[in-house]
Design brief:
The chain has helices at 6-20, 29-42, 57-69, 86-98, 112-118, 136-146, 165-168, 201-209, 213-225, 231-244, 247-255, 258-265; strands at residues 47-52, 73-78, 105-109, 125-130, 150-158, 173-180, 187-193. With 266 residues, the protein is α/β, with parallel strands linked by helices. It has 2 domains: 6-193, 3-Layer(aba) Sandwich (Rossmann fold), CATH 3.40.50; 201-265, no CATH class. Strands 3-2-1-4-5-7-6 form a 7-stranded mixed beta sheet, sandwiched between helices.
Length: 266
């Protein structure tokens, strides 16, 4: 990763925000800045895939992040229609070319099924962005076909909604945060993939029991409820843990809870 000082970084982001504001889309400056930092600093693989109407604001922010990181690629997959009309795509591609970013971004056309099936094994996606053009059904299909290609520790970003409930509630993903998409609009929802690599349930429980206090309870929630603990629940279980001293009791309470039961059935 290239070293960029805070002043230079702010100047770069302000310039990208100015360019992005001239393009159609719901991605706000705050969301763009978050995604830039996510791709440049957080993801295990600097590969970004955008599903929707073709390259737009996301492609611009992502291409800048990949260039500044010094590695990676952005793939914008046009599924037809929406904001990704020929004129809009042409404008974005010209802008990428003017900024010297065309070698970091590629526009593809096809179906989710065809392109997902052709995705090379072993190449993990760092950020999978599901654009505002996708309705609920299309989002579910995209997650089903593309989710397996997201690297462990990578992100799925939803521009329209919070994502399928069964995905949010699974042990494979943790809600990272929400970023405003536009004034008065829905939040940009971000999930992080956190599948244990080839671990058994016994391994997960052993690792959990090696933790203490709040760290133990937080990881317990993440592993078996697929979310961060709410303040009231954390306080309740911390109190019980301090009184009983039994982490196994806390584990069984969570595993036998209604919420965990619903997840296992879903």
């Amino acid at each position: 990763m290239g070293e960029i000082g805070p002043v230079e970084l702010e100047m770069r982001m302000a310039a990208v925000a100015n360019q992005a504001s001239k393009l159609r889309g719901v991605l706000s400056e705050e969301a763009g800045r978050f995604l830039y930092r996510c791709i440049r600093e957080r993801v295990p693989a600097a590969i970004a895939v955008e599903l929707g109407g073709g390259p737009g604001r996301f492609a611009l922010w992502a291409a800048h992040a990949v260039r500044d990181k010094g590695e990676g690629m952005v793939y914008s997959i046009d599924l037809g229609g929406g904001a990704g009309s020929a004129s809009v795509k042409g404008r974005v591609l010209r802008l990428l070319d003017q900024e010297g970013l065309n070698r970091f971004a590629m526009s593809l056309e096809g179906t989710k099924a065809d392109l997902a099936g052709q995705w090379p094994a072993g190449i993990g996606i760092g950020v999978l962005y599901l654009g505002e053009e996708l309705d609920e059904r299309a989002v579910r299909e995209a997650v089903s076909r593309w989710g397996e290609h997201v690297a462990n520790g990578g992100y799925i970003v939803f521009a329209r909604d919070a994502g399928p409930k069964e995905l949010v509630g699974s042990c494979s993903y943790v809600r990272e945060e929400e970023v405003p998409a536009e004034a008065g609009g829905a939040a940009l929802s971000v999930l992080r993939k956190c599948m244990p690599a080839e671990s058994t349930l016994q391994d997960r429980i052993a690792d959990l029991l090696a933790l203490e206090g709040e760290s133990f309870l937080s990881e317990l929630y993440r592993q078996f409820l697929g979310r961060e603990p709410d303040p009231a629940g954390l306080a309740y279980h911390l109190h019980r843990l301090r009184i009983s001293g039994s982490k196994l009791d806390s584990l069984l309470t969570i595993l036998m809870s209604k919420e965990a039961g619903i997840m296992s059935m879903g």
